[in-house]
């Protein structure tokens, strides 16, 4: 297994991704607004409105990612990695605001129906923006998972939700064009608003879990237990294992029981071996081990064979 890349390299890559995300959001916004301008469709207006949220969310994510990579200081001895969760919360709030604006516009179009102009041209323009968004959303979600970046992952999920709503808008407008049912335009806009409200809820709740020190995924925690057991030769038992996530950082702590006669140096060697194995497998892991004498064994922790 390869060693983790230097902190500066990781920070530079994630920051560049966040910067590119802002640029792409601006480009997509311009394309979607052009589609709305050509047609006058309230559904395409709602799609463009969500892209404004993408631009603002991208800027916030860029700020949060840059802050999260700042080294620990006297005021923040555990680092700044939780900053990305705040970005995702703000993004969720912005999504709700955008949904309210879209619903207002849809209601107005329902009361006073509008006739779309050049609908096929507008739909084609919007399809280009949707394709760009789909490709970028997949990339962001994958990179967010790889880098354990809540801001990038939330941005990717939000853009993917935008893709789903855009596909729905395009399908609805095609039906409206073929049938002449103009009522479908504001109805599609309302559905877009409801869908992004759902996405906003998911983004906020996911981020709040991180702010509340959510534990590692059960599969990862099982891997932690296996690594401890495989590298704790000489110890008797490990118990009270606790994990928590703070953005891309992972905190792992536990108590390790050793024989009464073991020297401090020998116990320290075991701790180093376990810590090295955990950090090699989990980039960003921070390990705290409390060594205890044999009398403290609980026989309910991770057995060391």
Automatic annotation (TrEMBL):
Q: Which residues form the Cation efflux protein transmembrane domain?
A: 19-212
Membrane topology summary: Multi-pass membrane protein
**Can the keyword Cell division be found in this entry's annotation?**
no
Keyword annotations of the record: Cell membrane, Membrane, Transmembrane, Transmembrane helix, Transport
- Keyword Cell cycle part of the UniProt annotation: no
- Where is the protein localized? Cell membrane
**Protein family according to the UniProt entry:** Belongs to the cation diffusion facilitator (CDF) transporter (TC 2.A.4) family.
Q: What is this protein called?
A: Protein p34
Q: Which organism is it from?
A: Aurantimonas aggregata
């Amino acid at each position: 297994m390869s060693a983790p890349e230097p902190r500066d390299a990781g920070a530079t890559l994630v920051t560049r991704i966040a910067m590119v995300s802002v640029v792409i959001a601006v480009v997509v916004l311009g394309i979607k607004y052009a589609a709305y301008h050509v047609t006058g469709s309230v559904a395409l207006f709602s799609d463009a409105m969500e892209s404004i949220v993408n631009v603002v969310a991208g800027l916030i994510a860029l700020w949060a990612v840059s802050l999260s990579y700042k080294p620990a200081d006297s005021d923040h001895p555990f680092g700044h990695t939780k900053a990305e969760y705040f970005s995702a919360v703000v993004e969720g709030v912005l999504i709700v605001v955008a949904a309210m604006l879209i619903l207002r516009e849809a209601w107005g179009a329902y009361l006073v129906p509008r006739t779309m102009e050049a609908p096929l041209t507008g739909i084609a323009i919007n399809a280009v923006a949707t394709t760009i968004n789909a490709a970028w959303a997949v990339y962001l979600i994958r990179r967010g998972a790889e880098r354990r970046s809540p801001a990038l992952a939330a941005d990717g999920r939000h853009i993917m939700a935008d893709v789903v709503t855009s596909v729905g808008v395009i399908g609805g407008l095609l039906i409206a064009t073929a049938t002449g049912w103009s009522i479908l335009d504001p109805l599609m806009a309302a559905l877009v608003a409801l869908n992004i409200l759902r996405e906003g809820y998911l983004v906020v709740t996911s981020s709040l879990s991180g702010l509340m020190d959510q534990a590692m995924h059960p599969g990862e925690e099982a891997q932690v237990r296996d690594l401890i057991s495989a590298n704790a030769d000489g110890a008797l038992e490990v118990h009270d294992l606790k994990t928590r996530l703070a953005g891309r950082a992972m905190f792992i702590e536990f108590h390790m029981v050793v024989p009464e006669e073991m020297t401090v140096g020998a116990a320290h060697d075991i701790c180093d071996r376990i810590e090295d194995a955990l950090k090699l497998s989990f980039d960003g892991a921070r390990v705290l081990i409390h060594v205890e004498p044999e009398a403290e064994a609980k026989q309910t922790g991770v057995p060391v064979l």
